[in-house]
Amino acid sequence: MAKVLGIGNALVDILTKLENDQLLEELRLPKGSMQLVDDQTSVHISQKSQHLEKEMASGGSAANTIHGLARLGMETSFIGTVGNDSTGQFFQNDLKSSNINPVLFFSETPSGIANAMISKDGERTFGTFLGAAIELAADHLKEEHFGGHNLIHIEGYLVQNHQLMEEIMKKAQSAGLKISLDLASYNVVQDNLDFLRGLVEKYVDIVFANEEEAKAFTGKNPEAAIDEIADMCDVAIVKIGKEGSMIKSGGHLVRVGVTEVKALDTTGAGDLYASGFLFGYLNDMGFEKAGKIGALLAGKVIEGYGAKISSSDWDYIRKRITEL
């Protein structure tokens, strides 16, 4: 069976259900964006929202994708950096209890926290304190971390550290791994555009983007964007919200619809779509089936709060996959 390695910001998500969007305005966080905040602002967010309903879960884009793959029964590992604190311990325990092999580096900096604020309409806004998560550095990476895996899934948020990103790509390529990259966020793409395009052309096999990220990456609408991205790598995936997704490889284009659900919270939809797609892809199920599994997982995760799917829903998902 294929084995997947994930690498990204090791964050603990603190999910807060907003009563209205006034708090976002007070905190100066544009609705729907992912803003980086410092330790003090993170504490300030926590204090300002202490009266609201919250829950805690291990997070970070690539870690969410790896969790999904592990729940589908794949062998997985995850590389990241956490603080030497209770939050870091929570993150490590969560990986272990989910059958994910943790390759974690511990730091004296506090662990990273993603304050995910969920609006009434399901839109999420992040005030993220990266903390120890961004201390992952090129010199942490050793050849043996990559060996024994077939594919590496990388979150685009790491692109802020150019040296790290280059090192991951080089080591993964020389170890013979397929390289999957999620573009992560339109503002991250805009800020690192030339570097990112260079990486995709040189190293990346699979690119995941949503409509905004695809536009930031190519300057084009989804239809034209997917053509351009597919010319740069083996498989391009552009997710278009309620319109579903498009998958293109060579001259072959597949369109996949969404699973009709009542969206409560869109946190993790893209990450879990990637879990489903990669599961189908690595099990040679073809692009259409892989896309449908992606849509199934994305649909399930947005029916609840946070980037995790309940155990009973996983039973349903596994049953549905066998029916596909």
Write a brief structural summary:
The chain has helices at 22-26, 39-48, 61-71, 86-97, 143-146, 162-174, 186-191, 193-202, 211-218, 222-232, 269-282, 287-301, 311-323; strands at residues 3-7, 11-17, 34-36, 54-59, 75-83, 100-107, 112-118, 124-129, 151-155, 178-182, 206-210, 235-239, 245-249, 252-256.
Structural topology:
Layout: E1 3-7, E2 11-17, H1 22-26, E3 34-36, H2 39-48, E4 54-59, H3 61-71, E5 75-83, H4 86-97, E6 100-107, E7 112-118, E8 124-129, H5 143-146, E9 151-155, H6 162-174, E10 178-182, H7 186-191, H8 193-202, E11 206-210, H9 211-218, H10 222-232, E12 235-239, E13 245-249, E14 252-256, H11 269-282, H12 287-301, H13 311-323
Helix pairs in contact: 3-11, 9-10, 11-12
Q: What distinguishing features does this structure have?
A:
single chain, 324 residues, UDP-N-acetylmuramoyl-L-alanine:D-glutamate ligase, 9-stranded mixed β-sheet, 5-stranded mixed β-sheet, 41% helix
